[in-house]
């Protein structure tokens, strides 16, 4: 923050010249008279200047109405313990987490969640699955989040235990990543329940000739799926 300071400087300069010695008394008398007349004038000037010096501090006073335009802020109440996050892990079932949203009253909505990593343990994607009520052929919904550097036109593919893969479009991207919101049919859900592992495949935008494949473990899928909330269509 820059601070601008104003200062008023008053400089008085007095110039005096040594008086030349007059060669006659008339010049000396004239100089004395002039000096006597100048003294009262200097005193009067000093008296007139005094109020100006007294009034100088008024220049530091804020302009009228300026203070009314300034916001001095207000105290923000601290968050109570536990309010920082509205979601929590209620239960770990196999390789899935039962992730629930806190609710002051009524049933807390829950979904099953898994973080997908590569062979070196690096996070590559995440998936959450929930049941759908009155969704017609769609029995469950899922959300996959993948890195921003994903080639979206190549879509996201899922295959279970080496079976025929299914491809799904990406819906949107934001600073967190790119999202594929998918609908699973009853056959899809049954394959997940019977299977051991699902292969999730994406294509990196910087290397379109390569594929990134991560495992989605199906251990604990059936029990986790039964405990998820059934969301109305």
UniProtKB/TrEMBL annotation:
Signal peptide limits: 1-22
Keywords, in A-Z order: Signal
Gene3D superfamilies: Invasion associated locus B (IalB) protein
Record keyword Transmembrane helix present: no
InterPro entries, sorted: IalB_sf (IPR038696), Invasion_prot_B (IPR010642)
Low complexity: compositionally biased ranges: 31-64
Keyword Signal among UniProt keywords: yes
Highest taxon, organism lineage: Bacteria
Pfam family, one: IalB
Region of interest (Disordered), ranges: 26-88
Protein name: Invasion protein IalB
Species of origin: Primorskyibacter sedentarius
């Amino acid at each position: 923050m820059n601070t601008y300071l104003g200062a008023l400087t008053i400089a008085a300069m007095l110039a005096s010249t040594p008086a030349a010695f007059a060669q006659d008394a008339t010049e000396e008398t004239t100089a004395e008279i002039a000096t006597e007349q100048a003294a009262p004038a200097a005193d009067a000037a000093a008296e007139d200047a005094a109020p100006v010096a007294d009034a100088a501090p008024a220049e530091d006073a804020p302009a009228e109405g300026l203070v009314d335009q300034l916001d001095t802020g207000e105290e923000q109440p601290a968050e109570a313990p536990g309010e920082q996050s509205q979601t929590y892990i209620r239960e770990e079932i196999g390789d899935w987490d039962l992730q629930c949203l806190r609710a002051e009253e009524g049933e807390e909505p829950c979904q099953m969640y898994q973080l997908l990593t590569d062979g070196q343990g690096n996070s590559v994607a995440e998936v959450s699955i929930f049941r759908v009520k009155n969704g017609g052929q769609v029995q469950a919904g899922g959300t996959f989040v993948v890195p921003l550097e994903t080639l979206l036109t190549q879509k996201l593919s899922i295959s279970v235990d080496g079976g025929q893969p299914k491809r799904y479009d990406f819906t949107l991207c934001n600073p967190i990543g790119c999202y594929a919101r998918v609908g699973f049919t009853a056959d899809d859900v049954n394959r997940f329940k019977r299977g051991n592992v699902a292969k999730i495949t994406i294509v990196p935008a910087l290397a379109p000739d390569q594929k990134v494949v991560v495992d989605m473990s199906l251990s604990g899928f059936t029990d986790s799926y039964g405990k998820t909330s059934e969301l109305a269509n």
